[in-house]
Specification:
Blueprint: H1 2-19, H2 24-41, H3 46-63, H4 67-84, H5 90-97, H6 103-109, H7 114-119, H8 127-143, H9 146-153, H10 158-166, H11 185-198, H12 200-207, H13 214-221, H14 224-235, E1 241-244, E2 260-268, E3 271-287, E4 294-302, E5 313-322, E6 343-354, H15 368-379, H16 383-405, E7 407-408, E8 411-412, H17 417-445, H18 451-476, H19 478-481, H20 490-501, H21 506-521, H22 526-534, H23 538-569, H24 583-607, H25 615-640, H26 648-672, H27 676-686, H28 698-708, H29 713-718, H30 731-758, H31 766-775, H32 781-798, E9 801-802, E10 813-814, H33 821-824
Parallel strand pairs: 1-4, 2-4
Antiparallel strand pairs: 2-3, 3-6, 4-5, 7-8, 9-10
Length: about 850
């Protein structure tokens, strides 16, 4: 009996070692104590004890770090890994190693440090940044009419272009010493987001110079001479930049660009025998290309005569070329889904440029891919998430208001359960999008270049933005589909697919990048193992690999132990921060993080290098990682907002939605992996009670809708950053005014309904009922004026534009004009 108890206690101690990730030495000590107790009190035969101690000694020698372990186990394992690991090209390696690991590393660890997350400072705007958003940003929004921009002129008005240049919109990321604004990533995000709510054309035109492009590349890699000359010109708008990366036959496979340059000697500005590059390229989809004065160009550089070294193929290189250079062709335009921003092709054949045009000078020849990947990690984190969130916020503001203003069957349509379901999704998705946008911008401001996180927010904030605008269009019905100056949704609806294709199509971002890059960068051991297999120093390679491999093995063992316990207890006994509303979410996310870490290692073990080709499986693992990040950002936002009680419906809906999506992804992952019996056993281990997580309940959705259907702190926080004109003749301004007018009129309308029901007033048209009520003293004059204002604004909001039969531009006949009921009835 004593032996059994000791063995059970030893197994429990071993489990504790695994759960808490003790070192190998700690494991050794615990097992030694257990064997000692078994020897002293277990009454086992001496032969059995000798075997147990021998096995223990051998295990201690082989599993604790030592030259013996490296010689007997590490060396053959290293040789095996060198054979089985897939070959990684130089461009793939540079992409994988770009940027930094941030909170995604914690999520991959299986045991996120929530206190670390909450300790990150809350991102805030400086007084100068807030003044810019409330001043020049609002001013330029007031100057623009999106219908005129997209339907009539197909461009921003000249005065808007000049205002953007004069106020420094194109130099937000450029430091003040070069004449730029030197804004934070959060400010950059806020500016793009607000512009999006007024004009997508303006937003795109501003985001491109402040994202991946000449300014970003010059700041990190330019020579002093290049910075001193170009950055002030870019900051003041004296030069308009574009960056040409995508070729007709090399879109998402940007590393395979066919455009090339050859190092040679030629004539330059009257000087003969100048060492330079003869370029040939053809690029497409280049935003600002038609009006650019400065072309950033990516191409593959060859040096057959070895002017720069001993290598023929130097690799991808980046150059800055004034568009006035002989042989450079720009000016023609594409028309992306009726968007009016400048986008078009550029091409050139045998264009000669000096070596000084290489960004960073000749020493950066062939370094272009690394430069791009490091710059992209930050840029992708800001512009496209801000654009998607801006669209979502506009939808939340307008759809909530329209759902209250628009009535059918004497009821606001937003109170119909079917419509409310869509509005709830709009509110919940907007909340989670804004939380992820702000937290990611804050990471960039902390100095991070979160490459995996940038892919997560690029994909999910544009995809959720697509769902939000679809729901908003459904709620608006005919109001949403009829084009014209009064339509505040249609251009966003048309433009959503544009953002989804930028910087790599979303399909590939989800299926190749998020987990494919994340598992190498975010996993605590995979990149170390890969690096060790490439290390030329044999001794260092063996030491590094031995530490990484056995660390990885201990990591898997720990996650297995954690998943067993967390699955059985549903994670309820984990010590976490938070309040009564969020503590359970922290526990669930910790459990799901452990399950994700184990599932990721399991997938790599079962599929090996084939996982790279099994894109659907990789996508589902990426979905789990992404939802962990999005849910984390919601909890961070809730804490940073002071745990506002009014925000609770949005917070609960967002986290529950993310957890439900994770549950769906886990199930789909294991159902579709090979070795189904083994996979389902692991799924049962992770979720022993079956599929536990449900989508947000209807009653929670009703609380979200209630917060969107009337003005209040939660609605204001959610839609902060939307440009709302004060002019009631503006569509969005009229809608906000109508919302308040309709709410003010509801008590008066209730009086009228009661009077009609009581027979005090005869039924009929609404204006007849109001007149009778006023004459009969049922309502006062002020009440009648309240009713009339609500009726006028409601009609202005629900009416749509109409045009001459030939849709000509000579006349725009809008039915938002005043049409009385008397006129309609022929009086």
């Amino acid at each position: 009996m004593n032996a059994l108890l000791i063995v059970l206690a030893l197994f429990a101690a071993i489990w504790v070692c695994a759960y808490h990730r003790y070192t190998a030495l700690g494991w050794t000590a615990v097992i030694a104590v257990g064997l000692g107790a078994l020897t002293a009190e277990g009454n086992l035969p001496q032969s059995a004890l000798i075997v147990l101690w021998a096995v223990f000694a051998l295990g201690a020698l082989l599993l604790n770090p030592s030259p013996l372990r490296r010689a007997l186990l590490g060396r053959p394992l290293l040789a095996l890994f060198r054979k089985i690991l897939p070959q990684v090209s130089q461009t793939e390696r540079e992409a994988l190693e770009a940027g930094s690991v941030w909170w995604d590393g914690d999520l991959f660890s299986g045991n996120p440090d929530w206190n670390r997350l909450l300790a990150f400072p809350k991102p805030v705007l400086t007084a100068e940044e807030r003044a810019f958003i409330d001043g020049p940003v609002d001013a330029v929004c007031a100057m623009m009419n999106d219908w005129q921009i997209t339907h009539e002129s197909h461009d921003l008005p000249p005065r808007v272009w000049q205002f953007l240049k004069d106020q420094g919109f194109f130099g937000m990321i450029i430091p003040k010493k070069y004449g730029g604004l030197g804004f934070s990533a959060l400010a950059h995000s806020e500016v793009v987001m607000k512009l999006t709510t007024r004009s997508g054309t303006a937003a795109v035109s501003v985001m491109v110079p402040n994202s991946l492009g000449p300014a970003e590349l010059l700041l990190h890699y330019g020579t002093d001479a290049q910075k001193d000359y170009y950055l002030p010109r870019l900051a003041k708008g004296l030069d308009m930049p574009c960056f040409a990366l995508t070729s007709p036959e090399a879109g998402s496979d940007a590393a395979g660009i066919p455009d090339f340059g050859i190092v040679c000697r030629g004539e330059w500005q009257g000087k003969a025998d100048v060492t330079g590059i003869r370029l040939t390229w053809e690029k497409r989809y280049i935003t600002l290309g038609p009006i650019a004065t400065l072309l950033g160009l990516a191409f593959r550089l060859y040096d057959p005569d070895h002017f720069l070294g001993r290598t023929d193929d130097l690799g991808i290189t980046l150059a800055l070329i004034p568009t006035g250079t002989p042989g450079v062709h720009t000016g023609r335009r594409h028309l992306p889904l009726n968007a009016a921003f400048m986008n078009g092709p550029t091409w050139g054949k045998d264009v000669f440029i000096p070596l000084e045009y290489i960004i960073g000078g000749a020493e950066y020849a062939g370094q272009g891919w690394k430069m791009l990947m490091n710059s992209l990690a930050a840029g992708r984190s800001i512009s496209l998430p801000a654009n998607g969130t801006g669209i979502a916020k506009l939808c939340a503001l307008t759809t909530g208001a329209y759902g209250r203003v628009r009535t059918q069957f004497n009821t606001s349509v937003g109170r119909f359960e079917g419509v409310a379901e869509a509005i709830a999704r709009i509110g919940g998705n907007t909340y989670i999008m804004d939380a992820a946008r702000v937290m990611t911008a804050g990471a960039v401001d902390l100095g991070e270049k979160p490459s995996v996180v940038s892919a997560i927010v690029k994909y999910h904030l544009t995809e959720r933005g697509r769902q939000v605008i679809n729901d908003a269009m459904d709620v608006h019905g005919g109001k949403g589909i009829c084009m014209g100056p009064a339509n505040y949704l249609a251009r966003s609806y048309q433009s959503v697919p544009i953002a989804i294709t930028v910087e790599g199509a979303n399909i590939l971002t989800r299926s190749l990048i998020i987990f494919g890059q994340g598992v190498i960068r975010g996993h605590p051991y995979v990149l170390k193992e890969i690096a060790a297999t490439r290390e030329p120093d044999a001794r260092k390679a063996l030491v590094d690999f031995d530490a990484a491999f056995f660390g990885h093995a201990a990591f898997v063992t720990s996650n297995f132990a954690r998943c067993v316990w967390l699955g059985l207890t549903r994670g309820r006994w984990i010590s976490v921060p938070g309040d009564a509303h969020t503590r359970r979410y922290y526990q669930q996310l910790t459990r799901l993080s452990s399950a994700f870490a184990l599932a990721a290692d399991f997938a790599m073990f079962v599929l090996g290098s084939a996982l790279k080709r099994r894109e659907r499986l990789s996508a589902r693992l990426g979905d789990i990682l992404s939802q962990l990040y999005l849910a984390s950002s919601v909890l961070k936002r809730y804490e940073d907002s002071g745990r506002a009680a009014e925000d609770l419906p949005f917070m609960h809906w967002s986290v529950r939605d993310a957890i439900y999506r994770m549950d769906e992804a886990f199930y789909a992952l294991f159902v579709n992996m090979p070795r189904p019996a083994l996979c389902m056993m692991l799924h049962r281990l992770l979720f022993p009670y079956g599929r536990e997580f449900k989508p947000p309940r209807d009653d929670l959705g009703r609380e979200v809708v209630r917060a969107l259907l009337e003005p209040g702190p939660a609605r204001e926080r959610l839609t902060a950053g939307v440009y709302v004109p004060q002019d009631e003749n503006e569509p969005v301004g009229a809608l906000e005014a109508a919302l308040r007018a309709v709410i003010a009129a509801e008590p008066v309308e209730a009086k009228l309904r009661a009077a009609v029901k009581a027979g005090t007033i005869a039924g009929g048209f609404a204006d007849d009922i109001a007149a009778q009520a006023l004459a009969g003293g049922v309502i006062a004059q002020a009440d009648a004026e309240t009713l009339e204002r609500a009726r006028t604004l409601r009609r202005r909001v629900i009416m749509v534009d109409d045009f001459p039969q030939d849709l000509g531009k000579s006349e725009i006949f809008q039915t938002t004009r005043e049409v009385t009921f008397e006129a309609l009835r022929g009086r």
